[in-house]
Amino acid sequence: MILVPSLGSAGPNTLEELFAARYARGDMDRVQYLTRMDGLALRFNRTRTNTDRTSTCES
User: Fold this and answer.
1) From CA 50, how far away is CA 37, in angstroms rounded?
2) Distances from the Cα of 12 to the Cαs of 43, 44, 50, 51, 52, in angstroms?
3) What is the pLDDT of residues 7-33, one digit of tens each?
4) CA 14 centroid distance within chain
5) Fewer Cβ atoms within 10 Å of its own Cβ: the N or the C terminal residue of the chain?
6) 11-25 burial code (b ≥16 CB/10 A, e <16)
7) Phi, psi (rounded to 5 degrees) for 49
8) Distance (Å, whole) CA 1 – CA 44
9) pLDDT per position as a tens digit, 44-55
10) Radius of gyration (C-alpha) of the chain in whole angstroms
11) 37-41: long-range contacts (C-beta < 8 A, 24 or more apart)?
């Protein structure tokens, strides 16, 4: 889990939550959202799983 420093607000606590909130507000489209999530996955050596439970990264 990647924590974002708290500034005393009730906003998102992780980068994943931040990107999800921006996507939900319409600040970014689906491709931008998935690209950012894949970037986080690569950066922190994790894989994002599609809704059909297949990985987006090759093993």
Assistant:
1) 11
2) 20, 19, 22, 22, 26
3) 556 667 888 888 889 999 999 999 998
4) 8
5) C
6) eeeebbeebeeebee
7) -105, 135
8) 10
9) 766 566 666 565
10) 13
11) 40/2, 40/15, 40/16
What pairs with residue 3 in β-bridges? Answer: 14
Q: Are 51 and 43 in contact (CB under 8 A)?
A: no
- 45 SS3 class: coil
CA distances from 22 to 17, 18, 36, 49 (A): 9, 6, 11, 20
Burial class (CB in 10 A: 0-12, 13-18, 19+), 38: middle
Confidence at residue 47, expressed as pLDDT on a 0 to 100 scale? 59
